[in-house]
Amino acid sequence: MKNVILIAGLALTTGLSIVATGYPQGTQQSAPKVTVGPTLKEKAGSPTPPATAKNKAQKTSIGKGKTAIRTAQPSSFWVEQLDVDNDGSVETSDFLYDAQRGVLYTYREDDFTCQNGKAESGSILEALYAKGNQAAKPVGSGWYLVGLNAGQCGTKQSAAFGCKFDANGNPTECGAAEINFATGELDVVVAQ
């Protein structure tokens, strides 16, 4: 409870929008591990659909449920087969490039690893910063959000957990998380 009060106080004094309500106590440590593969990071350098892409269109959203995001304007959407997590197998992923924010979003149903090493499967939304992004973040850095059902990764109820990562794919902040729709960023309640 001290951590939540400390985080809430920090949010009030710095103007951050962090939402810590609705997450069971102790679940911040449940953030699953998702590998951000080099092929996916390369897409941030050139966020356009390849000739082999399917379902090319203009859309304003990607994902579903807790792992969904909307853009302010219609953005380039496509479906592509790509080894996004560097596991040697090709996944079918949805892509949405928000040129206004300079963010490439990708969504898929795929495997991830819990902190205890157990493999699970579910919905994954990733965001990678492209060249010239509004947030002035390094190209290829970003965040991911995983929707967990009750019982997955030790959670008692369904929730979303995620991590921010640097341009090398290394996690920098992880915990219970949700999308801040005003900024398109991920708000993370960091485990203390």
Mean of residue pLDDT values: 84
How large, in whole angstroms, is the Cα Rg?
Answer: 16 Å
Total strand segments: 9
Determine the strand fraction and express it as a percent band: over 45%
- N-to-C series of helices and strands: HHEEEEEEEEE
How can the largest sheet be summarized? 9 strands, antiparallel
The chain-level structural class is: mainly beta
Number of domains: 1
Order of strands across the biggest sheet? 1-2-3-4-5-6-7-8-9
Which outline best applies? Answer: globular
Number of separate helices:
2
Low-confidence stretches: 1-29
**Percent helix:** 10-25%
Distance between the termini: 11 Å
Would you kindly provide a written description of the structure presented here, covering whatever features stand out?
This protein has 192 residues and is mostly beta strands. Helices cover 11% and strands 45% of the residues. It has one domain (23-190). The chain has a nine-stranded antiparallel sheet with strand order 1-2-3-4-5-6-7-8-9. Strand 4 and strand 5 (119-129) form a beta hairpin. The model is unreliable at 1-29 (pLDDT under 50).
